[in-house]
Design brief:
The complex is a heterodimer of chains A (about 110) and B (about 110). Helix content of chain A is about 0%, strand content about 50%. Chain A is mostly beta strands. Chain B is mainly beta and about 110 residues long. Chain B is built from no helices and 11 strands. The chains are: A mainly beta (about 110), B mainly beta (about 110). At the A-B interface, β10 of A face β4, β5, β9 and β10 of B.
Chain lengths: ~110, ~110
């Protein structure tokens, strides 16, 4: 049981604001990836952290940033929010720093930008 | 050409039928192939994980990978209303080590 949790479950922000999303698990998996899933689309890879270092990044601007902590929990920060940032944000945990190793997703945080 | 193509559906089939879900891809470097199930307003749940070509069976689910055709399939036998969900194919192992997802196929199993 990986027990991936994400907080908050929902939030509403206005354009230009900043947001921090959180991800944690009880399983000790040392790799966390973040994805953005727009309505009707598959998840898109934002970045991955392995042992507290960024370990790969998708086609997202620098205003998307992250952290991984020693206990392997993670944060996703988005600055200067835009309307198109409205989406479900998913974290996925894995092992070994390779994105194609098996990943287990959390329930997601639904962000609405007005 | 998109790296991964998946028909978004919706696909409606009667309960008990065999369901066939498919994806095609363009990157011949992909070696790892996955199927996820996603219920409404939930995160994706890993169903099947296969490496390279071949078949893999797990209960009512069978995953097939044909690397020569760049085509992967998921078969669901004896489909149940609880199988109604969006099914996402995903693949990785390419040069940039990213996982690429399809758009997902919405499946409805009719009681």
């Amino acid at each position: 049981e990986t027990g991936v949790t994400q907080s908050p479950t929902h939030l509403i922000k206005t354009r230009g604001q900043q947001v921090t999303l959180r991800c944690s698990s009880q399983s000790g998996h040392n790799t966390v990836s973040w994805y953005q899933q727009a309505l009707g689309q598959g998840p898109q890879f934002i970045f991955q952290y392995y042992r507290e270092e960024e370990n790969g990044r998708g086609n997202f601007p620098p205003r998307f940033s992250g952290l991984q902590f020693p206990n392997y929990s993670s944060e996703l920060n988005v600055n200067a929010l835009e309307l198109d940032d409205s989406a479900l944000y998913l974290c996925a945990i894995g092992m070994g720093g390779r994105s194609y190793n098996e990943q287990f997703f959390g329930p997601g945080t639904r962000l609405t930008v007005l | 050409q998109k790296e991964v193509e998946q028909d978004p559906g919706p696909l409606s089939v009667p309960e008990g039928a065999i369901v066939s879900l498919n994806c095609t891809y363009s990157n011949s470097a992909f070696q790892y192939f996955m199927w996820y199930r996603q219920y409404s307003r939930k995160g994706p749940e890993l169903l099947m994980y296969t490496y390279s070509s071949g078949n893999k069976e797990d209960g009512r689910f069978t995953a097939q990978v044909d690397k020569s055709s760049k085509y992967i399939s998921l078969f669901i036998r004896d489909s149940q209303p609880s199988d109604s969900a969006t099914y996402l194919c995903a693949m990785g192992g390419g040069r940039d080590d990213k996982i690429i997802f399809g758009k997902g196929t919405r499946l409805h199993i009719l009681p």
